[in-house]
TrEMBL record:
It comes from the Bacteria. GO terms for molecular function: metal ion binding; molybdopterin molybdotransferase activity. The gene is cinA_1. GO terms for cellular component: cytosol. This is Molybdopterin molybdenumtransferase. It catalyses: adenylyl-molybdopterin + molybdate = Mo-molybdopterin + AMP + H(+). It comes from Clostridium chromiireducens. Keywords: Magnesium, Metal-binding, Molybdenum, Molybdenum cofactor biosynthesis, Transferase.
Length: 341
């Protein structure tokens, strides 16, 4: 920090706010710290009684907050993301498309541990809409050591910390099992729920087949949707451990690889995930999806729509934050459900 005459300050950077006070009218900040002084600013500064001001003494080893903010932004910015204008060492990251937000949490923590800079984000693996704010970044001091920003660059060198994977268009088949529905004893309540949740994405519903509790019939219904070009098949009913609940066995008999039968999420413990020929998800939904506002289906569906192949480890990690509190007024996703992933 260095004091110089105001008339010689054009092009220099203010080190502190300059306050303007007009009696009984206003008290505000006329010039904020970090402002680069222009020719037209000089008369205003003099009128505020500032014959001398403190400016930032530029050094080859230091960076101004806005220069450093650009570096921090570029470390963060990945696919389908843009940024706001830089202001006072701050840049926001904005979604350019609807999609799944992916964050390298470990490297994010590494950057935030460097000190004098910060990145605050939304939660990882959640869907976002075009125009949504994804993260806010800021350089804390007015000037920061260039060496510190070099450390941040090393952390973000190979891959940006944030990316958005655009949702894909998918063809979906629905297989509903159960003698009680097939024979008309009760009305199907599962199909409308699934269709409503899928409607949040770009999907083509190929249809819904209702079949009885017969292993072969369930498998044939799944195979018919595969033959029609389904990108995903959702099976409902017959997902508990009762002897006559045959859906898991029918899914396995199609040749699909079972990734997991069961997940540490409530509601949703009896969830089944499998992949046919390694790329077509066939999922079995437990009964809770029919009557609970939010379940494991809400946590898994965004990743499936972004073509992220889930592993058993991915499902295991959902246990942290996997308890829905079933609030009277559901505020999801603005709550803790699924936030530990």
């Amino acid at each position: 920090m260095k004091m110089i005459k105001t008339i010689e300050a054009v092009g220099h950077v203010l080190c502190h706010d300059i306050t303007r006070i007009i009696k009984d009218v206003t008290k505000d900040v006329a010039f904020k710290k970090g402002h680069i002084i222009r020719e037209e600013d000089v008369p205003i500064l003099l009128s505020l009684g500032k014959d001398n001001i403190y400016i930032w003494e530029k050094s080859e080893d230091m960076l101004h907050e806005n220069e450093a903010a650009d570096i921090l932004f570029n470390i963060c910015k990945g696919k389908n993301i843009s940024g706001s204008d830089v202001r006072e060492g701050k840049i926001d990251l904005i979604a350019d498309v609807d999609g799944l937000l992916r964050i390298d949490v470990d490297r994010l923590n590494m950057v935030n541990s460097l000190g004098e800079m910060m990145i605050a984000t939304r939660h990882n693996n959640f869907s976002v809409k075009k125009g949504d704010k994804l993260a806010g970044t800021r350089i804390i001091p007015l000037i920061i050591e260039k060496e510190k920003m070099t450390e941040a660059i090393k952390i973000g060198r190979n891959e940006p910390l944030l990316n958005i994977i655009k949702f894909k268009r998918k063809k979906v088949g629905i297989v509903t099992t159960g003698n009680e529905v097939y024979y008309g004893r009760i009305k199907d309540s599962f199909g409308p729920v699934i269709i409503e949740k899928l409607s949040e994405y770009d999907v083509e519903i190929l249809g819904q087949e209702i079949v009885n509790d017969d292993l072969q019939n369930i498998g044939q219904a799944i195979n018919r949707f595969i033959e029609k070009g389904a990108d995903m098949i959702v099976c409902t009913g017959g997902m508990s451990v009762d002897p006559d609940d045959l859906t898991p066995s029918a899914i396995k008999n199609t040749g699909a690889e079972i990734i997991s039968y069961g997940a540490p999420v409530l509601p949703g413990a009896m969830f089944l995930l499998s992949y046919y020929k390694d790329n077509i998800p066939i999922i079995g939904l437990p009964g809770c999806v029919m009557y609970s506002k939010r379940t494991i289906f809400d946590l898994v569906l965004p990743r499936i729509m972004a073509d992220i192949k889930l592993s058993s480890k991915d499902l295991a990690l959902m246990g942290h934050g996997g308890l829905c509190l079933s609030c009277d007024i559901c505020t999801y996703p603005n709550c803790g459900f699924g936030k530990g992933m």
